[in-house]
Design brief:
232 residues, 3-stranded parallel β-sheet, two-stranded parallel ribbon, 8 helices, 46% helix, 12% strand, binds 3-methylbut-3-enyl trihydrogen diphosphate, binds magnesium ion
């Protein structure tokens, strides 16, 4: 969800106002995604690298995350969304961790859109934490080295049990992955959009999906037409 800072700057507003606008965009987009029948929406809210921002901006972001987690707790009474957090939340305050666990527990049985909020998330960190859990199980003899394959490894990641993302949208004109779901995006379709995140709207989401629908996903294999060609 990139571009909150630039959005605010363009309007002579504080960074905090930009992040607040970004958080509102997420609420709107999650509702739109649910109506479209999307099953899982994963948003990158705070990366393992975002701690390197100025302390007052980190504080602003943490306060906003607090506020919105509370907002989502109130919203669950009215909607059918399941909210989960991915990332290493042990680095967050105990109060925030408790709120997150509450929200996850309260929405565990919901069958609507699943929203994964990535907090203190890093793709490399996700992989390292999975390796540590697997290694611990190997040294306890609960697992054998030969059991390790792609399917079981994926199950140890924060996204364990979920399919890999079909589509990744990056806003604000940046064209990089910035340590997001590194393992999980091996065959994800990417969509880059110049709009700043607070300006990203439902039409933009529809446009991204329409483009995605026109893509030809081969997963490294050949599609049927090419197969016929090569077979003569
Ligand atoms: C993304 O907006 C929000 C977070 C990383 C939490 P930015 O703050 O990165 O916005 P720009 O890149 O400065 O415009
Ligand atoms: Mg940015």
């Amino acid at each position: 969800m990139d571009g909150n800072g630039r959005w605010a700057k363009k309007r002579f507003l504080t960074k905090s106002a930009g992040h607040r606008a970004g958080a509102q965009t997420l609420r709107r987009l999650a509702n739109a995604a649910e109506k479209l029948g999307i099953k899982i929406l994963t948003v990158y809210a705070f990366s393992t690298e975002n701690w390197a921002r100025p302390q007052d901006e980190v504080n602003t972001l943490m306060n906003l995350i607090h506020e919105y987690i509370q907002q989502y707790i109130d919203d669950t009474k009215k909607n059918n969304m399941r909210i989960c957090v991915i990332g290493d939340i042990s680095k967050l305050t105990h109060e925030l961790q408790t709120k997150i666990r509450n929200l996850e527990d309260m929405t565990r049985q919901k069958h609507g859109l699943r929203v994964n909020i990535a907090l203190n998330y890093g793709g490399r960190d996700d992989i390292i934490r999975a390796c540590k859990k697997i290694s611990a199980n190997v040294s306890n003899d609960r697992l054998s080295v030969n059991d390790i394959d792609e399917t079981m490894f994926a199950a140890y990641l924060d996204t364990g049990g979920m399919p890999d993302p079909d589509l990744l949208i990056r806003t604000s004109g940046e064209m990089r992955i910035s340590n997001f779901l590194l393992w999980q995006t091996a065959y994800t379709e990417f969509y880059f959009c110049d709009k700043l995140w607070p300006d990203f709207n439902i039409n933009d989401l529809n446009e991204a999906i329409a483009q995605y629908q026109g893509r030809n996903r081969r997963y490294g294999a050949r599609n049927d037409i090419e197969k016929r060609d090569t077979n003569g």
